[in-house]
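#lab-general

N.A. 3:47 PM
ok so I finally got the sequence cleaned up, no stray characters, all 263 residues accounted for. can someone with queue access submit it? mine expired

B.Y. 3:52 PM
send it over

N.A. 3:53 PM
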Amino acid sequence: MSATLSATDVTFRAGSATLLDRITLTVNGGETVALVGPNGAGKSTLLRILSGELQPTQGQVLVKEKAAGSYSPRDLASRRAVLAQSITLTFPFTVEEVVWMGAGDRRTVQAAREVESALHAVDLVGYRHRIMTTLSGGEQQRAHFARILVQLACGEAEHGPGIMLLDEPTASLDLRHQLDLLRLARVKAAKGTAVIAVLHDLNLATLFASRVVMLDHGRIAVDGTAAETITDEWLERVFKVSTAVGRVPASGVPFVLPHSIGG
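B.Y. 4:20 PM
back already:
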C-alpha cells in the first residue's frame, strides 16, 4: 500500500505551550493505527493537524503526497473523513439527512446506495426519520459514523482509497456497537483506507490496531505493534501505572476483553 498520510517534524504551539513537539509519522493505506496516551498527551491535536483542520507551527502534513493546506475544503473532504470527539447540531436534521451530508452535493443513485448501506452498517435503518436530537449520544455517534462512511465511499469512487480519522469514536457506545464500529473501520482498511483512531481503551486498541502510536507530552514515546507497545514497561513509563499486562487481574475482579471484533 502507498504512503497515504505523513507528518514530518510537526510542532504545534498554543501561546507558550508546546502541544506537539517534532512529530514524524507515516501511515500507509490499509493500516489501522491507534493513537493512545494520557490526557493532554496531544492525541486530538495531532489528529486535527493530520486532518488539515489545524496548521502546524512548523513541519508539514502530506495527504497523498500533497500538502494538506494546499487542498480546497471540498477536495480535502473527498480524500479524508473525520469523526470528531463531539458534534453539536443546532437544526432539527433527521438521521437520514445527516448521513446524506457525507455525499456533499452528490445526489446520484450510487450516493443513495451508499447512504442506505451506511444506515444498515450502523444499525439505524429504523431511525432514518428520527430527529437527531431525540437520539441517545451513542445513536447520534453511529449516525455521524454512517455519514463519514458515505463521505469516504463517495470520495474513494473518485480518488481511490482515502483516510479515516476517528477521535474517541467509541466513547459513547455500548460494547456491541464499540466492536461494530471498529470492525467497520477494519473492513475499510482491508480495502486500502488508512484508518487512524484516538482510543482511550487500551484493550480495544489492541484488538483494533495493526500499529499503536503512544504519545507522551506531545512526543511519540513508542510506535509499533500492540505486543511491542502495550507492555508493563511502557504503561508505567507513560501512564505512570503499574500493570500486569496479559495476566489475570486479582481474584474475584471481572475482566472483560472480547476475543475479536468480528461480526
